[in-house]
Every structure is written in C-alpha cells, then in structure tokens.
Amino acid sequence: VLSHNLCTVLNVPHDPVALEEHFRDDDEGPVSNQGYMPYLNKFILEKVQGNFDKVEFNRMCWTLCAKKNLSKSLLLISDEDAFKVWVIFNFLSEDKYPLIIVPEEIEYFLKKLTEAMGAGWQQEQFDHYKIALNTSREGLSAWELIDLIGSGQFSKGMDRQTVSMAINEVFNELILDVLKQGYMLKKGHKRKNWTERWFVLKPNIISYYVSEDLRDKKGDIMLDGNCCVEALPDKDGKKCLFLIKCLDKSFEISASDKKKKQEWIQAIQTTVNLLRGGNPPPHKEARQKRKELRQKLLAEQEELERQMKELQTANENKQKELETVRKQLEAAAARAAEEEKKRLQTQVELQDRFSLELEREKMVRQKMEEQVAQKSSELEQYLQRVRELEEMYKQLQEALEDEKQARQDEETVRKLQARLLEEESAKRAELEKWHLEQQQAIQMTEAEKQELENQRLIKEQALQVAMHQLEQLELERKEALEQYEEVKKKLETAANNTKSWKDKVAHHEGLIRLIEPGSKNPHLITNWGPAAFTEAELEQRQKSWKGKKATSE
C-alpha cells in the first residue's frame, strides 16, 4: 500500500512484480526497513522526474507520522499550521539523520514569523533560549519545533488567527516559493477593462486569481531573463501604474498605492535579475549560504578539534616527557641537593676550619706583630747594645792593646826584673864576693874597708833604686791585671746578653740573626733580611696553601 501510494503521489508507475521479486528471499518479510530502503531507492526514488506536487507528497508523509508523534493537547495552532511548520522544518533541517533544526535556522524561522505577525523581535529572549538549548542538545526535532511554535513562547500577545496567517505567509515564501502576493488591478487585453486580481509572484511566474483562496486561477505571466518592468504615468483615472513586458505580451497593472507599486516593481525586477543570472530564489540562496557557512564553521571546528586533539596528544606526550624530565630533574635535584648539602657541609667545615686557621693565623700574626714589635724594640736595644758593644769592643781593643802593651811592658819588666834579678844575683854574688873580699879587705886594710864601704853604699843605693823600679813595675802589672779583669767581666756580661738575645731570636724563628759565621747552604732573603726558614720549609708551606685554596674553590 505504501509503495503504491508513493508511486501515485510521485507520478511513478508502480511495478508489483518487482516488489515481490525484491522481497521474495527475505526471511523477515516485506516490512523490514533494511530490505525496504534499497527497494525504495531503486524502484521508486530513482524514477522520480520532479513533475509531482510537493505539497501532496508532504501531506502523505505527514499522514504517516503525525498521528504517532504530534501532541494536540497543548498546541495553540491548528493541524494545518502544524503541518506547515513540519514542512518548513524539513526545508530548514540539516541533511543528516536524525533530522534536526539547528539554533541558527530556528532563529531565522522565528524572525520570519515575528516579522509576518508585525511584532518586534526579542533577541534577548531567544539568546536565553539558545543558551538553554545549547547546553542540552544540538537542535530540535520536527515535533519539538511544532511544540515550540504551538506553545506561544515567542508569540505572546498574538491571537491564533494572526499566528496562523504568519505561518501561512512563511510557508508560502519558503515552501511554495511565493516571493510576493497581494490584490492589484489588471488591464484586460481584449476588453481593456480593469479587474481586481490576487497576484502571486514566484521565481519564474506571476499567477493571478479571482481571490486569495487560489481556487479560481485566471492566468499566468511567464517570467524569464528577457522580461522587464517599468513604471507608467497615471492615465485613464488609474494611478500607481507599472508595465510588465514579456516577449509575447505586456501587462499593465495598477497598485493600491505608491509603496505597493514600488515593492512590486522591485520584487519583479529582482526575480528577473535572478533568472538572468541563473540564481535560486533569495530564501533558498540564503539557506544555502547559511548551510555552507555552518559546514565551513563545522569543518573549521572539526579541524580545530583535530588540531586540539593533536595538540592534546602532543601535550600529553609533552606532559609525559615533562613528567619524565620532572622526575629526572627531581632526582637530579635530590642528588644536587644532597651534593649541595654535602658541599655546604664541607664548605661549612672548611669555613670553620679556615675560620679557626684564620683566627689562629690572626693570633699568630698578632703574636708575630707583637714579637716583631718586641723584636724591633729588642733590635733597637740590640743595636744600641751592639753599638755599646762596638764601643766596648773598641775600648776592649784599646784595653787589649793596653793589656798587650802592658804585657809587653810586663814582659819587658819581667825580662828586666829577671835581668835585674840576674844582675842582683850577680851583684849579690858579686856583693858576697865583694863582702868576702871586703871582709878580706877589712881584714887586709882599713882603707880598703872604707873604700869597699863606699862602693857597698853605692851598690846598695843602686840596688834600692832597682828595687824601687821593680815595685813600681809590680804595681803597674797589678793595675793592668785589674783592668784586664774588669774588661774580661764586661766581655762575659756582653757575651751573656748576646747569648740570651740569640736564644730568644732562635726561639721565634730567628727574624734577626746575630753576626756569626754563615752557613754553607744558601739562605732566602726577605724584606727584613735573611729568612727564618729554609727552601724546603717554604716549598712545604706553599703546597699546604695551594691545597687549602683548591679545597675552598
């Protein structure tokens, strides 16, 4: 029955034999959707030529689905208006199953309805509705759109007749391709009389009827690219005239007012221009542009989503890499922190050690400075003592010279004394001899005795003189010995002082050395004189300093 009715509405010859052949081996029977769709496409839809009444086809489809899906209890519109809304939905819906109408097309349809009702468009109200719609779904189904229009949400304050007229106007424009319609006067070709007609402008034809119910059609004005429309001056008592020129005929028409006249001229001229350019009607072209724009936006959105997915994938990979790097960095940071902790601990220990050594060095330096100051003072004292010792040395040299001279004199005196003693002995012997001789001489003669007495007196005087000289030399020798003892004591005192100072200098690394025989080994020289340490000690200290510096770095 469905196939027969479809063939009747679509003006396609029905072939029952093909239907039976198609479903013969189907175990599920002829009501199988899976099996019927190939048959519908092959034996019915592919044979459609386009010479069928689309409204009747829509009514058949409406009859099949309306009873099951249409809700009549809450609708403020008639079944006929619901049918027209359903047809408009099929025109504006997206070309994919299940069919839905997107918010942009809903806005376009509601604007058309509002304009047809003569009301103002409430953009803010629709924006709120659109936001609520987008949060739950992509669009509305046909029955949801009928519920929306029938609920009166966007037609508050309008009666049912006004809404019905608006739906009918939008239906005529979008479905029946009615670009403009209305009553005007037409001049007859034979009688030349003026008759009121209901004109309907479509993309390639202007039809005129007795009334707007479209039951009694009086004729058509076929439009093509060669047609033109022009305004005419008022004549024969008729105003607002314009002329439609076609190849075979011309039509004089009178509008009700200048505004209507201008609207009709503009609408007819637009239609002719579209025919010349081979363009579709404005509402179909606008729909196609909106669809292309949505497809473009959808493609861009899909491309953006694809790029976002790629970026997300890349971001996830990067996140994994970053997580791996982060873990590595955390491990490295932990190792670095441990090493830093060890380094800081080592640095603190080194700083403590260096601080102690620095304090020690400062103390040593302070002590050395004190010692240097003390040594400088001692050096001054030493230099003063050295000068005194040099003076004493000079005096000692002089004393030694005097002692030497005294010793020489003493030796001379000793020699003289020895000689005198020898002489005295000789003289004593001689005196004894003389005494003996004197005794003998006394015995011999008194004169000789007297003479001998005189000689004895002379010799005694000479002996006394020699004894006096010997005593004098003995006194000088004692004085020289006393001076020698004094100089010797001074030398011992100076030697003791020099030895004590030398011991102190040697105890403090010997900044100043006494004048003494030098070592055979080469010595280092500083700004203050010979160094207090050897070359080996200097190399050992340099190695110690370099090791401390490398450890601190």
TrEMBL record:
PROSITE patterns: PH_DOMAIN. Residues 177-273 form the PH domain. One of its GO terms (molecular function) is DNA binding. The lineage of its organism: Eukaryota, Metazoa, Chordata, Craniata, Vertebrata. One of its GO terms (cellular component) is cytoplasm. The keyword Plastid does not apply. The keyword Nucleus applies. InterPro entries: EF-hand_SWAP70_N, PH-like_dom_sf, PH_domain, PH_SWAP70. It comes from the Eukaryota. Phosphatidylinositol 3,4,5-trisphosphate-dependent guanine nucleotide exchange factor (GEF) which, independently of RAS, transduces signals from tyrosine kinase receptors to RAC. It also mediates signaling of membrane ruffling. Regulates the actin cytoskeleton as an effector or adapter protein in response to agonist stimulated phosphatidylinositol (3,4)-bisphosphate production and cell protrusion. The gene is Swap70. It is found in: Cell membrane; Cell projection, Lamellipodium; Cytoplasm; Nucleus. Residues 283-504 form a coiled coil. This is Switch-associated protein 70. Keywords: Cell membrane, Cell projection, Coiled coil, Cytoplasm, DNA-binding, Membrane, Nucleus, Phosphoprotein.
